[in-house]
Design a protein that fits this description.
By secondary structure, the chain is an alpha/beta fold. It has one domain (6-233): Carbamate kinase (3-Layer(aba) Sandwich). It is built from 8 helices and 11 strands. α2 packs across α3.
């Protein structure tokens, strides 16, 4: 049986690191090294990257119309996607950037058959441009692409090592949960992902794994057979 892909959702802010600009070269290289190490284990790897290090979409309502703001945010994700491709290729890996629409020299137009062929050949596929429509978050874009490629898990990169019974920064008695069903995640109001993204994953049986990507090695581990963090999914 073919290995099901895993899709990593990473924020734009995660690529900024502590750098004063929009990208931290050291952090981008670390992320790409870990992606390639994970892919070398035989897991097909897709990535959805955000653009919050550059633009936070419709949130900048005082600057532009919110719909145009979302389009600006989608363009920002392409900036980050191209940076990831550049670094992956510098490290000797193969990568393709796809988006809802073709952007010459930046991104190919999303075609599922072609994407599945690349994934099967060990190419890291970076999905930029969001869904191509305003009013949808990159979480929703990640859930959509994960469902389309038949991903076994959507890896939600975070700065916390999973889901806790309470905020561990405020409550020392908080306990990390290893597993939650989709219903338990809803009932507990853990805010795993936005509602549309969560519903897409639940309805298409794509498990969600929340893990701390800031610790070196965790991205590779999340793509492996003994992943860290909390799994939200269907009880077997």
């Amino acid at each position: 049986m073919p290995v099901r892909p895993k899709l990593l959702k990473i924020s734009g802010e995660a690529l900024k690191g502590a750098a004063p600009g929009v990208l931290d070269a050291v952090e981008v290289e670390r992320v790409c090294r870990e992606l390639l190490a994970g892919a070398s284990g035989g897991t097909p790897v897709g990535v959805v990257v955000g653009g919050g290090n550059i633009w936070r979409g419709g949130g900048k309502r005082s600057v532009v119309d919110p719909t145009r703001g979302d389009y600006l945010g989608m363009l920002a994700t392409l900036f980050n996607a191209l940076a990831l491709r550049d670094q992956i290729e510098r490290l000797g890996g193969r990568c393709e950037v796809v988006a809802p629409l073709r952007v010459p020299n930046v991104a190919r137009r999303y075609e599922r058959t072609e994407v599945m062929r690349w994934l099967g050949a060990g190419v890291v596929v970076v999905f930029g441009g969001g869904t191509g429509h305003p009013f949808f978050t990159t979480d929703t874009a990640a859930a959509l692409r994960a469902a389309e490629i038949g991903a076994g898990e959507l890896l939600k990169a975070s700065n916390v090592d999973g889901i806790y019974t309470a905020d561990p920064r405020k409550d020392p008695a908080a306990k990390r949960l290893d597993f939650l069903t989709f219903d338990e995640a809803v009932d507990g109001r853990y805010g795993v992902m936005d509602a549309a993204a969560f519903a897409l994953c639940r309805d298409n049986r794509v498990n969600i794994r929340v893990f701390d990507m800031t610790v070196p090695g965790t991205i590779t581990a999340a793509l492996g057979t003994n992943p860290p963090g909390t799994l939200v999914g269907v009880k077997t």
